[in-house]
Design a protein that fits this description.
This protein is of the alpha/beta class. The protein is 51% helix and 10% strand. The protein contains 18 helices and ten strands. It has an eight-stranded mixed beta sheet, sandwiched between helices. The protein has a two-stranded antiparallel ribbon with strand order 9-10.
Amino acid sequence: MTTPAPSADETRALAYIAAAEGAAREVPGVDGVSPRALERVVIIGGGTMGAGIAVSAAEAGLGVTIVEREDAAAAARDRVAAVYARHVKRQQLDASALAARLARVTVTGDWQVVAGASLVIEAAFEDLAVKADIFRRADALAPAGAILATNTSYLDVDAIAAATSRPDDVLGLHFFAPANVMKLLEIVRAAQTAPDVLATGLDLAARLGKQPVVAGVCDGFIGNRIFAVYRRHAEYLLEDGASPEAIDAAIEAYGFAMGPFAVSDLSGLDIGFAMRRRRDATRDPGERYVAIADRLVDAGRLGRKTGAGWYAYDADSRKTPDPVVAGLVATERVARGVTQRTFTADEIQRRILAVLANEGAKVLADGIALRASDIDVTLVNGYGFPRANGGPMYAADRRGLATVLADVEAAHRAGGVGSEPAPLLVDLARSGGTFAGWRR
């Protein structure tokens, strides 16, 4: 069966995103700046992310050592072996090739290896105190000129850098899981990151075959900040009357490989639960909060790994809608006094696309992204936004920002605080401007 040729609209979108990926590598302030030499990478933490980063770096020809607690070192080695086993299987290489590649990555409990590192990448648990302690230790051991990088997905890179005596040597390198497969590398420039450190991050992305996007410091940077709004509005749609399967089907019909609830089950509902608990102390009381996911976690439904989450899963991880979830959702609607309504697939798509573009406009105005196209590159390469639709900012421009603003205003009525129309979107919609044409 032949694949149908892309339409004219798809062809334009594909050309746009290809050009945007090239533009994302062009960062003001680093033109002509030489990157620092990288020879040995030390990764602090041998969990799933650390193992994936290690394999990615080793495949690029860098020497790699993982530092892990002695009681967890064997498990870290097993994770690296498992990653390489899949890697070798895909490339149809033999056992001797597997052994040779495994030898590229060493695991140790001895922190003294940091003294020989040109790049230290922290890949530990998402806890600021834990990461700050790691950076203090790395700062004391790493040689002058070594770069200290954090793989944090959300946390304040400036606060992490402040734990060191060399904040100019610190940046964020936010890899996406699985790190040896996913193409996006979000490079987070902290307040004091030196130009040659940023240039080294871009050079590393090229060596690893990654697509770089430079982001500023905020909660979630570019991608996770925008995606958090996406998840919240998917849950608003759910509580207001749509089912998980209807929302997922609408998003998949738009071109995403998976809808938000299927993705949540794949990654694990405990991940989002921990993030929500981290935000409890600072969440604005005017922001609508949907507790359905918390109820699932309370019931031990963590997704595919427990055989139940938003869906029920059989032994082969095939999902089916679960009446237990439908009953729980119905109970929550009654408790919140929600009158259930129906949503068409088009309404679901319009809501999600509108809130993606609206938060993207806030990211732009805050200076977190350099240009609108960087947001599109991030969402396409890291979050499954369909490449043939160009990204949320491109799609918003194509739809017309006045129309998008009307959808955002409806989303604001549903979501309350945090869902307000972005002033930039309002200005552009009223002036007939576009995100593509906007310049700071």
